[in-house]
Specification:
With 100 residues, the chain is mainly beta. The chain has one domain (14-95): Immunoglobulins (Immunoglobulin-like). The chain has one helix and five strands, in the order E-E-E-E-E-H. The chain has one helix at residues 92-95, and strands spanning 14-21, 33-41, 47-55, 69-78, 83-90. The radius of gyration is 16 Å and the shape is globular.
Length: 100
């Protein structure tokens, strides 16, 4: 494989900073988690970036074939020097795995 999944080719550069989770502990299946990150176009040209959120399931009694799973994504357009916060809301469906 020449490029890892999710690697984007672009004429500009993007940087990610300020990852914030609304909570770090889940106490109920009704809980949600908001994950936000600031994305900045640090290059000299306008560009589009696909912001992706991957999850892993490290503590399962059954094997899940995916090491990391794409759960949410958003495509944004940024001018040079522009920053934008991208927020994803995760629910129990996003981190649940069926175990027979």
């Amino acid at each position: 494989m020449q490029w890892e999944f999710g690697t984007d080719l672009s004429y500009t550069n993007f940087s990610y900073s300020n990852l914030v989770l609304s909570k770090t502990n889940i106490t109920s299946s009704a809980d949600t988690i908001d994950a936000s990150v600031a994305v900045t176009n640090s290059g000299s040209k306008a560009g589009k970036e696909t912001v992706m959120l991957f999850l892993t399931q490290p503590y399962l009694s059954v094997s899940v074939p995916e090491v990391k799973q794409l759960k949410k994504f958003s495509k944004i357009s940024l001018n040079p020097g522009e920053s934008r916060a991208v927020t994803f809301t995760l629910t129990a469906d996003d981190w649940s795995v069926y175990e027979p």
